[in-house]
Specification:
Oligomer: single chain
Distance between the termini: 29 Å
Number of strands: 12
Strand content: 25-35%
Order of helices and strands: EHEEEEEEEEEHEE
Length: 255
């Protein structure tokens, strides 16, 4: 295993532009106002005043007799709606869900280079990661880069590898999602997973830079949970990405 074979992910984002409505105005002078003469028998104080053509008549009952201000234009309302929608999208992208681009072979056959997944960035604020979930984490060797791996064991469990078989608390795991074409037969002695840590591995065990090399990962270094593949189109919603832990009954447990 070499650091050059690990699978990484890149954040995807977009920018939006909004148009600002231009101010409008009219030139020219308005014709002089004419006061309407009260009809016979009508109280002169109850008469209304008619303004110039194109202006809103002002009622004599309004304070000061000032005309009502016109409402917002349709263009301005559209622009304000666009700005609000953009702010909401940025908040969701920063704190809730973000798109990541997969690069590298370490998660094959589950994930391949140039595939894109949605990552839930909020879920682990409310609960701990579970075995079988795919997570995005900060690369301890290169903090500015992010890796995508599968959780194999969690805090309080002991993990061990013998002849390519993974044992958690002495029980052999059944892992139908791993790449059987490139097998890893490297053994690893029993190793307990510390508090607030997880042990992660790539599905392509023979080409993955993971906890076998860098040790358990702090939960605080996890950026989120990959839960949905949406690109390419022919693999839309392919799979489930999660693979709940299974025990292999055909292999004898360790004592």
């Amino acid at each position: 295993m070499s650091p050059g074979s690990e699978e990484s992910v890149e954040k995807q984002g977009s920018q939006a532009l909004s148009d600002t409505p231009a101010a409008q105005g009219t030139d020219g002078e308005s014709p002089p106002e004419l006061a309407a003469a009260p009809e016979a028998g009508q109280d002169p104080a109850a008469a209304s005043v008619t303004g110039a053509p194109g202006e809103t008549p002002a009622s004599a009952d309004e304070p000061g007799g000032e005309p009502k201000k016109p409402g917002k234009s349709a263009v301005r309302e559209w622009a304000e709606t666009l700005v609000v929608a953009l702010l909401v999208a940025l908040l969701i992208r920063s704190f809730v869900v973000q798109v990541y681009l997969v690069e590298g072979p370490s998660m094959e056959p589950t994930l391949h280079t140039f595939e894109r997944v949605f990552v839930n960035k909020l879920v682990y604020r409310f609960r701990a990661p579970k075995p079988g979930e795919i997570i995005v984490l900060q690369d301890p060797a290169r903090p500015q880069r992010e890796l995508i791996k599968r959780v194999i064991a969690v805090a309080g469990e002991t993990i061990e590898i013998r002849k390519g078989i993974v044992y958690v608390d002495g029980k052999p795991l059944k892992e139908p999602f791993i790449n059987t074409a490139i097998k890893s037969t490297v053994d690893m002695d029993a190793q307990p997973v510390p508090e607030n840590h997880v042990f992660v591995m790539g599905d392509n065990r023979g080409m993955s830079f993971d906890s076998r090399s860098i040790g358990p990962i702090e939960v605080s270094k996890i950026d989120g949970k990959a839960f949905f593949m949406f690109w390419p189109v022919d693999k839309f919603a392919y799979g489930p990405l999660d693979q709940p832990r299974q025990i292999d009954p055909t292999i004898t447990s360790l004592k």
